[in-house]
Design goal:
Blueprint lengths: L8 E3 L6 E3 L3 E5 L4 E5 L4 E2 L6 H7 L9 H13 L4 H14 L4 H14 L14
Antiparallel strand pairs: 1-2, 2-5, 3-4
Helix pairs in contact: 2-3, 3-4
């Protein structure tokens, strides 16, 4: 399984943000490397406006997308990969998590259309 565990943590009081209390790692078969979100990482599970999720019929906290959302948020904020690759990895993750082809395509397209404002840019690239 590409993810090492379920998302563990809790909601930040008075916000729509979630704070991890354990490491969450994802192994990408596409890249042959592991990406890790550390404890205390804060996520909203989504780089797409909430209205898009509603239209897609998939919530960013649903089991098929929540781990992918955390990892994708970490990739966007850390800048360790270019945006196109982060979005492709999100697609890979939600397919691996069992989201159907059509919904996965729609989620990916919404991410490509609306997610860019949250991307912080590449700061470093490593091959380990």
């Amino acid at each position: 399984m590409p993810f090492d565990r379920n998302v563990s943590g809790g909601w930040v009081v008075g916000t729509n943000l979630f704070k991890l209390d354990e490491v969450l790692s994802y192994y990408s078969p596409r890249l042959g490397r592991t990406f890790t979100a550390q404890p205390d990482f804060i996520t909203d599970f989504s780089s797409v406006p909430r209205i898009a999720w509603t239209a897609l019929g998939v919530l960013p906290t649903s089991y098929q997308v929540r781990r992918a959302g955390v990892t994708h948020d970490m990739l966007y904020r850390s800048g360790i990969v270019i945006r196109t690759l982060a979005d492709q990895l999100f697609y890979d993750m939600i397919r691996e998590e069992g989201l159907g082809y059509i919904r996965s395509q729609l989620c990916w397209q919404a991410l490509r259309m609306f997610g860019g404002t949250n991307y912080k840019g590449v700061t470093v690239w490593t091959t380990s």
